[in-house]
What we know:
about 300 residues, Rossmann fold
Amino acid sequence: MKKKYLFVFVMLLVVTFAGMGLTSLYVQRTGGQEKEEKISIVTSFYPMYIAALNVVGDTDTVKLTNLSEPQTGCLHDFQLTPEDMKLLSTADVFVINGGGIEAFMEEVAASYPSLQIVEACEGIALLQEEDEENAHAWMSVADYEKQVENIAKGLAEADPAHEKQYQSNAKDYCGRLEDLKERQQAVFAAARGQNVILFHEAYAYVAEDYGLSVSYVMDLDEERQVSAGEVSEVLSAVKKDHVKYILAEKRYGKSMGDTIEKESDARVIYLDPLNRGDYEKDSYLDGMSENIRLLEQDFGA
Ligand SMILES: [Zn+2]
């Protein structure tokens, strides 16, 4: 009898341990993925998405989503849709440019008081444009680098388990931005002090990077009518300040650019404001590299 009890006892132990082993295997196989909770990071618009994409890298516990579409451009007049609000309601972190470009932030803060906001422009001395902040800071490579660092810092605070990854990805990315800054130095040396006219507010940051002096700004950031008065203001600024170059965006500035080129000796350089494009990791690097190439070509750097 005793042997029988021992046998039953041993069998029970075997069954129990086997069961425990299988259970833990089951948890590892099926529960493992879900166990490491995903963090949902939402970015406001294109340049923030590209910066965050580089900071996140292949951290697979992150779900990165852009609020606007890749072709939306700046969010100056952007209205949040019910879907946008729904997306934000599931977000842990919201990465914004700041400086007022996301005009809907009051609404977001009121609706989701616990949503962590990472403001990429934090600590960046923004340029002023007629009493208003000009927040297109990503157009300066140096400022964009700070934005990348701010995003890495913000994500590390929100998700400390992956701090090392965020910081090392940001460091790699900033290393590549440093290569662009080196190329900028040659343009800076050739162009600094020259008078330019801007057909896009964002290009005030381009002027800053190259030490250009801005004679006149006409903001063609969207489709709009240009008055005859504005045309003559541009032409008189060209004449008065001996402006050789105008920086414009082809999408909204081409017809004005053609007019000015016809009426004066100024030349228009069409740059990419990098506020829309495809969701490729290197799109900022490629776009800014092309901008630098165009400036090198015209300023003879
Ligand atoms: Zn803009």
